[in-house]
Amino acid sequence: MNMTETWRFIAFEKHDPAYNMALDEALLNWHSEGKIPPTIRFYGWNPPTLSIGYFQQLEKEIDMEAVRRHQLGFVRRPTGGRGVLHEHELTYSVIVSEAHPDMPQTVTEAYRVISEGLLEGFKKLGLDAYFAVPKTADETAALKNPRSSVCFDAPSWYELVVEGRKVAGSAQTRQKGVILQHGSILLDIEEDKLFDLFRYPSERVRERLQKQFAKKAVAINALRETPVTLEEASKAFHYGFEKGLGIKLAPYTLTREEDAYVAQLAKTRYATAEWNERR
């Protein structure tokens, strides 16, 4: 890029699960209609929420009793991937046209380019993060066939890792010529709570999966001497996306009309049983 391009930035705010997914979709729609430039958004979840991937089978994989017992929100994402507990985290989304000159054509490569922003953010927090690329045919095959419903269980192509463990989980969808990538940057993780939310063939299987998970995934605050606040994390990743993507971020607040559109989409889609329970 010769001229630094300016993208829009929507600063961290907590919303309910349906609104969060509706806003990501609304940004995708507006960008596809040429109403807004590429946009990056940071957000949180109120209440803490279990989100599941677009293709997941609710009945088979999720223990809704446990979701209610832990007083969690619940929503199905428009992106693939597996179950994520959104609680102690900074969630990000990136909305950019597939035709953007800096976006590679393939999902995997576009994922890597966008994730450069995450990489720089982790470095800013003093973590030695890097991209994991599967080295063997076995590893590549394992990516196509994840064994568990839990998102952080499998490092996928270009997953960000620190000391061999996954530090961010992201998912991508492409609709209307636009890429939407969103993901979780974990500050802390309550493993027992997370593992309560899924169904297992037996208690033994749960124990095994939970043990494996602890070896594969890690939250930022487990890697640092001093814990990171949400504010510090927001600053670091704001810097990271500007540096990693070579852009400037200009703050933006939704207009009243935009907000009403999002609320309506949340109500008619992401808050409905048809959407959330449909598989």
UniProtKB/TrEMBL annotation:
Matching Pfam families: LplA-B_cat (PF21948)
GO BP term (any one): protein lipoylation
Reaction(s) the record says it catalyses: octanoyl-[ACP] + L-lysyl-[protein] = N(6)-octanoyl-L-lysyl-[protein] + holo-[ACP] + H(+)
Keywords tagged on the record: Acyltransferase, Ligase, Transferase
Transferase found in the keyword field: yes
Gene3D superfamilies found in the cross-reference section: Bira Bifunctional Protein, Domain 2
GO MF: ligase activity; lipoyl(octanoyl) transferase activity
The protein's Enzyme Commission number: 2.3.1.181
Keyword Ligase found: yes
Family: Belongs to the octanoyltransferase LipM family.
Further comment: In the reaction, the free carboxyl group of octanoic acid is attached via an amide linkage to the epsilon-amino group of a specific lysine residue of lipoyl domains of lipoate-dependent enzymes. The reaction proceeds via an octanoyl-thioester enzyme intermediate.
Subunit and interaction comment: Monomer.
Record function comment: Catalyzes the transfer of endogenously produced octanoic acid from octanoyl-acyl-carrier-protein onto the lipoyl domain of GcvH, an intermediate carrier during protein lipoylation.
Protein name as it appears in the record: Octanoyltransferase LipM
Organism per entry: Shouchella lonarensis
GN (gene name): lipM
